[in-house]
Structure formats: structure tokens, C-alpha cells
Design goal:
Alpha-Beta Plaits; 36% helix; seven-stranded mixed beta sheet; single chain; four-stranded antiparallel beta sheet
């Protein structure tokens, strides 16, 4: 069948709640083999000790759900092989990589049973399905397309996307050992917002997009602020506010939650290790162990390749 490699992503990007995301040079890889008489998942790397190894794994449930939607019988035996470099539940889009893999494996298998090329993936349909499953596309769109992407659901088109050219830069992502589920992050948000807060975020989201496009560090520094999700989520993550300040004090241009958290991402041109150590130490003061990654942004999105027969 096929092998799929999907990059990590950071979403929201401060004021761009549910609408903006950026691909990062850290990858999960997936293979699907038609063997055996049951659904089996083997995982190495991040999450190897906690992720399901059977049909309840997100890759398998997405794959089976898509085949059911397409009215194609699920094969009797499937072996998904997974290598994860993206930490789970970190705010770096790990679950989105699995969702995309499940959708694309279903497309591939559908093509296979119909006598078509299993490596020919319809990326527009993949994106539509991923946004429908996830509810918003700020992780799945940059993971699929690469680069900096603005994405919004649309009643007519299903989803509207624009990949915006951006000046490549490095980021430092610090992830604490703290369980902060997406469902909990959503519950932390209010049911409504004031007009001034909405205007605040709309304007700054446009400025952040322009700052990335133009490579304008000063604009990025001034625009990366949010009133829609960060104030409500940061207080749920021990030490997070101090971690943001520690990164700024260590020389970061700007800092925000990565996705819904608990990871925090610092954008910078230099002092990478210094910033990472400062963030890690600040989490330590709050009683949490943490790890940090120094990553490039990635213009490349999901890779699809044939497995040897």
C-alpha cells in the first residue's frame, strides 16, 4: 500500500483562533499493510506506551469510519505501523497527523479495491474530510499542505484555505508533563465575547499573517496577542504565564500557546537553547517536568509514497 509522513503543526498562532496554523519540521510516519485477520497497530517513538494498539486507535477508527461512509467493507486484516516523533497531547497536532493518515489510508484502500492507483490521493477531498472530522482546520490544513495556512469552514465550499508565503524561521516549543485534553481546553472558553475583544483579535490576526509573510519581526512581536482563548487556558496550565515571560526575558520575539496547549511556542531568530532552558526551568518552578524542541518551520506538507511490494 502506501507510506504517509505528516508534519507537526502549531495552530491558533495567538489571535488566529481556529483559523491559522503553521507546519513544523517534526514528523510522524504511518504505513498500512493488509495482513492477518484483525486490526493491529504498532507504535514506536512518542506515545508508544499509551496509544491503543487495536481498532480503537485514532488511525484505525478514522480509517474504518471513512470506509463505512464510502460503503466499502473493512478488510479482515490490517496492520498499521506508526513511528511518532511528535509528542502526544502537546499542542503540536499529533492527533491531526493520525486523522489525516486514517483518511488517506481509506482513500488509498478505496482506490486499491477499485483497481486504481492507491498512491493517488485527492488532497482537496482529504482536507474537506479532515476539517469535517476535526471541526476546524488550523492543524490539519498546514499538516496536509505545509507552510503557513489560513483556513476557515465555508457552507458552500466546505472549507476555504489560503497558503501564505512566509519567511522561514525557527521556533522553540516547550511541552510540560501535564495532561490538558482538547475537551478541557474547549470547556475553558466562554460562550460569548465582547465586540472590543473580537475587534482586537481580528486586527491582530491579520497583522500576524502579514508579519509572517513579510518577515517583519517587529510587527510579529507587537501583534502576537490574544483575548479569545489564551487568557482562559493559560490559567489552567501550572506555570504557563511564567513560562511565556521567561521565554521573552531570554530573547524570544513573541510567545503563545501552541494550539490549545499545554505546549508553549516561542518565535525567535537566535538564542534557541537559552530560550528553551528558560522555559523548561520556569515549568520546573511550577512543579512540572518539561521538554523542549528547537524546530524549523516547514514549507512541506504530507508526503505520500508507495511501499515496496
Amino acid at each position: 500500500m502506501i507510506r504517509i509522513r505528516v508534519p507537526a503543526t502549531t495552530a491558533n498562532l495567538g489571535p488566529g483562533f481556529d483559523c491559522m496554523g503553521l507546519a513544523l519540521d517534526l514528523w510522524n510516519s504511518f504505513e498500512m499493510h493488509l495482513v492477518g485477520d484483525s486490526i493491529q497497530v504498532t507504535v514506536d517513538g512518542e506515545g508508544a506506551n499509551v496509544l491503543a494498539k487495536d481498532g480503537t486507535n485514532l488511525i484505525a477508527t478514522t480509517f474504518c469510519g471513512e470506509l463505512e461512509r464510502l460503503r466499502i467493507p473493512v478488510p479482515a486484516g490490517i496492520h498499521f505501523k506508526v513511528h511518532n516523533a511528535v509528542p502526544c497531547a502537546s499542542g503540536l497536532g499529533s492527533s491531526s497527523t493520525a486523522t489525516l493518515a486514517g483518511i488517506m489510508f481509506a482513500q488509498s484502500y478505496s482506490a486499491f479495491v477499485n483497481g486504481d492507483d492507491p498512491a493517488e490521493i485527492d488532497r482537496e477531498e482529504t482536507l474537506r474530510r479532515a476539517v469535517a472530522i476535526e471541526g476546524h482546520g488550523d492543524n490539519v490544513a498546514p499538516a496536509l499542505l505545509g507552510g503557513f495556512v489560513i483556513v476557515v469552514p465555508d457552507e458552500t465550499a466546505g472549507v476555504l484555505t489560503q497558503k501564505v508565503p512566509h519567511t522561514k524561521m525557527k521556533v522553540v516549543v516547550c511541552v510540560p508533563d501535564f495532561k490538558y485534553l482538547t475537551a478541557d481546553a474547549r470547556k475553558a472558553l466562554p460562550d460569548s465575547y465582547s465586540k472590543p475583544d473580537a475587534i482586537f483579535n481580528i486586527g491582530r490576526a491579520m497583522l500576524v499573517a502579514e508579519a509572517f509573510r513579510a518577515g517583519n519581526d517587529e510587527l510579529l512581536r507587537n501583534a502576537m496577542n490574544d483575548r479569545i482563548h489564551e487568557p482562559f487556558r493559560l490559567k489552567d496550565i501550572p506555570g504557563a504565564t511564567s513560562v511565556k515571560q521567561a521565554a521573552l526575558d531570554a530573547g524570544a520575539l513573541c510567545v503563545c500557546l501552541s494550539g490549545a496547549g499545554p505546549g508553549i511556542i516561542a518565535f525567535t531568530r537566535d538564542r534557541f537553547d537559552r530560550i528553551g532552558r528558560a522555559m523548561k526551568e520556569a515549568y520546573g518552578v511550577a512543579g512540572l517536568d518539561a521538554r523542549y524542541w528547537i524546530l524549523d518551520t516547514s514549507e512541506e506538507g504530507t508526503h505520500v509514497g508507495r511501499l515496496p511490494v
